[in-house]
Amino acid sequence: MSAVTAPIAPATTSVGFIGLGLMGRPMALNLRQAGFRLVVHSRSRPPVEALVAAGAAEAATPAAVAAQADVVITMLPDSPDVDRVLRGPSGVFEAVRPRTVVVDMSTISPVLTRELAAEAASRGATLLDAPVSGGEIGAVEGTLSVMVGGDADAVERVRPILEAMGHRDRITRIGGSGAGQLAKVCNQMVIAATLAGVSEALALAHKAGVDVAAVRRALLGGFAASRVLEVHGERILAGNYRPGFRAALFHKDLRIASETLGAHGVPAPVGAAAQQLVTALVAAGRGGDDYSALATVIFGLAGLGTRADGRALTADC
Known about the structure:
By secondary structure, the chain is of the alpha/beta class. The protein folds into two domains: 10-176, NAD(P)-binding Rossmann-like Domain (Rossmann fold), CATH 3.40.50; 183-301, N-(1-d-carboxylethyl)-l-norvaline Dehydrogenase, domain 2. Helix content is 52%, strand content 13%. The chain has a six-stranded parallel beta sheet with strand order 3-2-1-4-5-6, sandwiched between helices. It has a three-stranded mixed beta sheet with strand order 7-8-9. The longest helix is centred in the middle third of the chain and has 29 residues, at 179-207. The radius of gyration is 21 Å and the shape is elongated.
């Protein structure tokens, strides 16, 4: 393997991490636990302090992160946030060094991703888009699925970093710049449609007076089985909507999906219906709940409560 593509080593590599939210904080902690030298920046103080206590250094600005790091990771809420952190005042591109690899693990517009990759290249750096799937649980356990777009050599160079945060068998280079974000759009579309279908099925079972938990167990044994039915079906049964991935962010992801579908002339009537359910959830003031709370919109329309197990029968959503 050439010097260009040789994977980096934890002890000799400085990794910058910008954005220590619900997902970013455990992802950065996993990098530190894997032995990487880490420098962090985030708007909120508590996660920064937690990372510093774990041995990371703190940087005052994104530019200060880039000045110290061989690899810079961003994990931010939306496209404007990534644009500001990379191209804005005191942003990463002000201080990025040649051969630096910038890995954006946020979920943002594929169009913006390609713009940012071109600007990174003009400065001698490389930008990879590497959005993830797996939620807070995957971030904590280091088992995230990572969908990567960008230069193949750069992907191999940073693979040890990606493997510290994701399951090694679930790190997939999709193609060139923007391909990772396109794959994430497809991922969110499938989740939204499946979650809506699971919610409707559990609402039907509940309203028909059938044991909803038994229905779920039966479905998990057949072709209807899915991770959504397994993980979010359990959440729905328990009425547990503590955020693992906030509905407001899922709403943003589906907006990106709608824009991407429109740009490529692809109809998605099922996806559009699921997007409207998430819009209703956020409009009801529940954007801070887990996105599996989409089920509560279905239950409300059916005259049920916010749970599917028969213990909450008032329509309070």
